[in-house]
Design brief:
Layout lengths: L8 H14 L12 E5 L11 H19 L3 E5 L1 E2 L3 H14 L9 H15 L2 H9 L9 E2 L3 H16 L3 E11 L4 E3 L4 E17 L5 E6 L10 E4 L13 E3 L6 E6 L11 E4 L5 H9 L26 H14 L3 E14 L7 E10 L5 H9 L5 E3 L3 H10 L4 E2 L1 E2 L9 E3 L7 E3 L3 H12 L10 E2 L3 E2 L1 H5 L2 H4 L10 H6 L4 E4 L4 H15 L7 E4 L3 E2 L16 H8 L1 H9 L8 E2 L2 H22 L3 E2 L5 H26 L3 H24 L7 E2 H18 L4 H11 L21 H23 L8 E6 L9 H8 L1 E7 L6 E6 L2 E6 L6 H26 L2 H6 L2 H28 L1
Helix pairs in contact: 1-22, 3-4, 9-10, 9-15, 16-17, 17-18, 18-20, 19-20, 19-21, 19-23, 19-24, 20-21, 21-22, 23-24, 25-27
């Protein structure tokens, strides 16, 4: 097989991905091996690949490929999430563009459109992941709306309801007026915004007196049903038993007294709107106040909004302020900073709204999940600093609002048979519901037509919290072979932004349904940001298209570029230069391979320097392997890659190949060549999880494969003992070689001119690598002596002195003059530094760090002067 001069990512990536797929290397079935399992954080079915997906899935692929090489039965389950709010919004927008209103459709008709959308766009992101090299078990691909997955969700709901953990309640909820659905507390993002504080006059009934109320939402006065004052506020004691008149609405409302009111905020008087504020709702219940809801589901005003009916809340805010001013009811407007809740999905400003919803009791459910992470550490978060965040959320958790006013999703399995609040049953199927309804009512005449299923769908997270179990059938069939073999999974890789939405809830569900953790380790990636530390987003236009990056730099280059700076939990400051660096690395490895394969091989004696080089690199490989294993164990994926990067670039390409490279037009001995290939293969195994395409391409070029026919299923290098002293001796030798090269460069001695090297071995340094020093320095001989050599160029490595006898290429007088000039400069520099250090005022008043730097300067100058003096003496 001929070797191309350049590595071509496009041709290579499609070739080997197809090959891996054809040979079914990604697929896993239970067997006698130890399983290693990852479930993908399912991206939204509407999604396309972005930089966060790139990072997250590259890390997962690194872990799964490494596990495969280490002999585990590696299983990476892919899939997508139906994403109720996002997908329904996309479908509604599509229908609107076609002139179709969702409200004019039946649920069945709408779902038909939703499935058409899903079938058309749902697989896009998974196909894009293949371009990245993701080695998922595609035969196991799941979708959260697959029949078996939906059945798992419904069974979970019924089970929790029967345990008394799910209830239906009339509560104040977070309402997204754009998606027209309720949201859980965790789906509301609070942002500080600059708004206005409106001071409004309410007339006291039967008098000309007024009371001033401060509010940030003047439009809600139309829903006011009381004014509340702190009973300890002496300013308002005269209003006991009085009533006030709501401006514009001209509705008479009571003035009530409650210590809930903060006397210091605003005017100390509070307007109470029980339908539109959770705290006002509690006051309303306590004081038996009327509830007036002034909003439609899209946050336009309803008939209680009087002449503002049909207008958007924010339009009304401005118009009502003008009307209040016109009628003399507006005292003043102030600038005010407050926190505004927004929808995590649509970004719309949330409205508190009273409605009947389904809730899951969380107080008892969370306890095993708290213990697993914070006490027993059965589940470990990386980095561990997220334990504090996890603790805060879990210990302050509230009941979970699990119902959504959507059609796309699992429909709540509650069936109503009457008009009363309790006239319903909960069952997995309509047939079971009918049986329960007949049993509950004693009415044998009931039929399926008498039952009406709840119109709401379940929160998407209520589906995905079962993901590690349901993908293996663990809810519907806990005794299934797949579930018993693959669960619990090993690692979860995800972003810290869904630590609550998903990670914590999966842990809760795992202990509730399987009595076990869903995974052992949670690797929390950072957020990909640009060089200005801004989060990458389409709206900012600062996020490159991942597929464009792959086209430009190759998948391996992009993977390396992303991972070089991706330490767990820390944000990634992405720069395309990182991908260029990754591409440069692929070129370096490819050229190293081509260099080796380009050598002529002969059955000749192995040189000593080659034998030493092999011994050293085998030890270096083993040391690096131990470092890599430690990094992986601690989920320092970036550090593991950097260790491999340095091993291959610096140690293999820059040192090892130079040491064994045969002379110009000379063959390499077969023993060394075979070892070079063996060590290259070890490098490829380490590189494979990070650079799967390049490594497989080289692997297949090296030889005709039999036992290890593909790199993807070969074996991770075996850990063996290594000689630390050998590595230390080599490091010392590299300093000697650097000294020789510096003298050659400074004194313009060409490498083709052989030199002698004489050594005063005060360090008792090993002679093990003298043959390597001779080869890389073009030294005819290394001679150990006891006395210094005059008339020679010299350098030091620690306390060892090295002498290179002067050849005709060096003018001794010029050399002495140069050294003398440098010596004079350093003596002057030393004098200035010592002048500072002899100044007691400086030493006593300057920061300790500054004084330490000056002392180091003094030590460095003294050492430099000693070397220069010795060099001059040796030349005289």
């Amino acid at each position: 097989m001929s070797i191309p001069a350049q590595f071509d990512p496009k041709a290579v990536e499609s070739k080997w991905y197809d090959y891996w797929m054809k040979n079914n290397y990604f697929h896993s079935e239970p067997d006698s091996r130890t399983p290693y399992t990852i479930v993908i954080p399912p991206p939204n079915v509407t999604g396309v690949l972005h930089m966060g997906h790139m990072l997250n899935n590259t890390i997962q692929d690194v872990l799964i490929r490494r596990a495969r090489l280490k002999g585990f039965n590696a299983c990476w389950v892919p899939g997508t999430d139906h994403a109720s709010i996002a997908t329904e919004a996309k479908v509604v927008a599509k229908l609107k563009a076609e002139g179709i209103n969702k409200a004019d459709l039946s649920r069945e008709e709408f779902l038909k459109h939703a499935w058409e959308w899903t079938d058309k766009y749902g697989g896009v992101i998974l196909e894009q992941l293949k371009k990245l090299g993701a080695s998922c078990d595609w035969e196991r691909t799941k979708f959260t709306m697959d029949p078996d997955m939906s059945a798992s969700v419904i069974r979970s709901f019924v089970d929790l309801y029967n345990k008394g953990l799910i209830y239906r309640g009339y509560r104040m909820v977070n309402w997204d007026p754009e998606a027209k659905t309720t949201l859980s507390d965790e789906e509301v993002i609070y942002e500080e915004r600059q708004g206005k504080l409106y001071h409004i006059k309410y007339q006291i009934e039967g008098t000309n007196d007024v009371i001033i109320i401060a509010t940030t939402r003047p439009e809600t006065i139309l829903g006011d049903t009381a004014i509340c004052i702190n009973p300890n506020d002496e300013r308002y004691t005269h209003l006991q038993g009085k009533k006030a008149i709501v401006p514009i609405a001209n509705r008479v409302i009571p003035i009530i007294f409650d210590e809930y009111v903060d006397m210091e905020f605003g005017t100390g008087a509070l307007k109470v709107t029980p339908a539109h504020d959770v705290n006002d709702k509690e006051l309303g219940e306590k004081h038996n106040l009327e509830i007036i809801d002034i909003f439609n589901e899209d946050a336009t005003l309803n008939s209680f909004g009087l002449h503002y009916a049909g207008k958007d809340r924010f339009v009304v805010r401005d118009e009502i302020a003008k009307e209040l001013e016109t009628i003399g009811s507006l005292e003043k407007i102030e600038t005010h900073i407050n926190k505004v809740g927004t929808s995590e999905r649509t970004k719309a400003v949330i409205e508190p709204r009273l409605s009947d919803q389904w809730f899951l009791k969380m107080e008892e459910l969370v306890k095993p999940a708290i213990k697993a992470v914070l006490e027993t550490e059965e589940v470990k978060l990386y980095p561990s600093r997220f334990n504090n965040t996890y603790r805060h959320w879990m210990e302050n958790i509230r009941d979970w609002n699990i119902s959504r006013q959507l059609w796309w999703g699992q429909q709540i399995p509650a069936y109503y048979y009457g008009d009363g609040k309790e006239d319903f049953v909960v069952a997995e199927t309509p047939a079971q519901a009918l049986e329960l309804a007949i049993a509950k009512t004693g009415n044998a005449a009931l039929t399926a037509n008498d039952l009406t299923q709840d119109v709401d769908a379940l929160d998407t997270w209520f589906s995905s919290w079962l993901w590690p179990m349901s993908v293996f059938g663990g809810i519907m069939d806990p005794e299934s072979e797949d579930f018993k073999y693959y669960y619990p999974t090993n690692d979860l890789v995800t972003g810290p932004d869904i630590l609550f939405f998903w990670v914590a809830r999966m842990i809760i569900a795992g202990y509730e349904y399987a009595g076990d953790k869903p995974f052992t380790n949670v690797y929390l990636t950072g957020i990909v940001r640009d060089k200005q530390r801004r989060k990458m987003s389409k709206s900012l236009g600062n996020s490159p298209d991942p597929l464009d990056l792959i086209e430009k730099f190759g998948a391996d280059g992009v993977r390396v570029g992303l991972l070089l700076s991706a330490s767990a939990g820390n944000d990634i400051l992405f720069d395309e230069e990182l991908c260029a660096q990754g591409k440069g690395f692929t070129t370096k490895v490819w050229n190293a391979f081509r260099l080796i394969k380009g050598w002529e091989v002969a059955d000749i004696a192995q040189p000593e320097h080659s034998a030493k080089a092999i011994a050293w690199y085998e030890a270096k490989l083993q040391k690096t392997l131990a470092e890599i294993e430690d990094h992986f164990e601690k989920y320092r994926i970036s550090d593991a890659l950097m260790a491999i990067y340095k091993l291959v670039w610096d140690d293999f390409c820059s040192w090892f190949l130079e040491m064994i490279k045969p002379g110009y037009q000379q063959p390499i001995d077969s023993t060394t060549f075979a070892k070079a290939i063996e060590l290259l293969e070890s490098n490829l195994k380490l590189l494979h999880p990070f650079m799967p395409f390049l490594s497989e391409e080289i692997w297949q070029h090296i030889a005709d494969r039999s036992t290890e026919e593909a790199l993807i299923i070969s074996k991770w290098p075996e850990a063996k003992p290594y000689d630390e002293k050998l590595l230390a001796d080599f490091d010392f030798a590299t300093e000697v070689i650097a000294g020789i090269r510096t003298i050659r460069k400074d004194k313009n001695i060409p490498f083709k001119d052989a030199i002698e090297l004489k050594v005063v071995n005060a360090e008792n340094a090993s002679e093990a690598f003298d043959s390597v020093i001779s080869k890389l320095g073009n030294v005819t001989a290394v001679e150990y002596i006891t006395d210094k050599v005059s008339g020679a160029l010299t350098f030091r490595v620690k306390s060892n002195e090295y002498f290179i006898p002067v050849t005709g290429n060096v003018n001794i007088e010029e050399e002495i003059a140069k050294l003398q000039q440098e010596l004079d400069y350093n003596r002057g520099f030393l004098k200035s530094v010592q002048g500072k250090l002899s100044n007691e005022k400086f030493v006593n008043s300057a920061p300790e760090k500054v004084v330490a730097i000056e002392r180091q300067k003094e030590a460095d100058a003294l050492a430099k002067i000693a070397v220069l003096e010795q060099s001059i003496a040796s030349l005289k």
